[in-house]
């Protein structure tokens, strides 16, 4: 910018201060406008960040309670959880059962014959299968050792439930080693089978006549109320409608059966419902804080929040209320009101425990159906909230627009600075010209006065 000495030589004015004041006065309204817009935009971006965090926390809570174990009308228990655990699904009915476990399901573990120390194999293939299932070919490279074969199996069958290891006799290392394969597939008929093709790999065959089975695949065997049952897995489904058993150990000799009880899950449902209400209220508290209006009480004034009157938050709240107020089709629980849940003036939810207790006594299954499943309240809320929080969703789109506004503010500041610099240069030029003119006029005046004084003096002497 142009500069000049602080005091004009002709006028005696502080031109620097005068120009600075005029430029500042010209820039002040626009600067104040941009400052207000930036502060408002920054506050909105920060508020949207808080809103996103609150919505994500709400979604996490919905996922945690939108499960069969959280919202189930019945609960199951085992008198001996070291023997077996049990969970109840929506198809379960109240009752008691006596459970004895006589055998746990096991997976196959098999060993090849003895392979001499240092033996290598030519290139070939090991066809590995479980029971009658399709075999998987494991390619063996030329000159492979037993360790190389193990590595090939573990690499090529990774994630398929079959692993290989080597078993040797430390007391007699010259005896040779065996290739041992283990499966994770339990159930009768699921024994490991190995067929070596080419390269001398037949020495690693495992079947009913070659190699040996350290453990045969077997079913779990158990009694429910004296009825003999079996399962290919220790996780038993279908033995009793709606119940899943996890068998953990065989019933010790001389020990009685474990009692499996299935009863109403009033306490669990109440807890899950309270978790939902708490999660929802936490979200509403955040939206209320972000949209508070300006208030004055006495000498105290509270400023409006960053998103007061914001259409995005208004749309979010309308969506939440709409989902909460939807009436389910069919008999049973059709609305939150049927469960004793109502909305307060602030938008939060509250539970009438007496009405909820009555509803659970009369129709616990109706509550489960209302909240869970693809069309249940929890899934609908999760889907709708995701529209706000997802990548390129409603909030991110609005935030991008605000960031564009910040960029425009910066550009307007740059333009303003350029205009004010030009104005300052122009003002300095004008004031300098004026000061120079005044100086010249003063000089001319002083010269005339001097001439007049000289004339007067000469006339006075005559």
Automatic annotation (TrEMBL):
User: Which ranges carry the Flagellar hook-associated protein 2 C-terminal domain?
Assistant: 217-443
Please list the GO biological process terms of this entry: bacterial-type flagellum-dependent cell motility; cell adhesion
Superkingdom of origin: Bacteria
Q: Name one Pfam family in it.
A: FliD_C
Any one annotated GO CC term: extracellular region
Flagellar hook-associated protein 2 N-terminal domain: from which residue to which, for each copy?
Answer: 11-107
What keywords would UniProt list here? Bacterial flagellum, Cell projection, Cilium, Coiled coil, Flagellum, Secreted
InterPro entries of this UniProt entry? Answer: Flagellin_hook_IN_motif, FliD, FliD_C, FliD_N
Where does it localize?
Secreted; Bacterial flagellum
User: Which PANTHER family does the UniProt entry name for this protein?
Assistant: FLAGELLAR CAP/ASSEMBLY PROTEIN FLID, FLAGELLAR HOOK-ASSOCIATED PROTEIN 2
Q: Give the family this protein belongs to, as stated in its UniProt record.
A: Belongs to the FliD family.
Subunit-level organization: Homopentamer.
Q: What does this protein do?
A: Required for morphogenesis and for the elongation of the flagellar filament by facilitating polymerization of the flagellin monomers at the tip of growing filament. Forms a capping structure, which prevents flagellin subunits (transported through the central channel of the flagellum) from leaking out without polymerization at the distal end.
Q: What is this protein called?
A: Flagellar hook-associated protein 2
Phylogenetic lineage: Bacteria, Pseudomonadati, Pseudomonadota, Gammaproteobacteria, Pseudomonadales
The gene from which this protein is expressed is: fliD
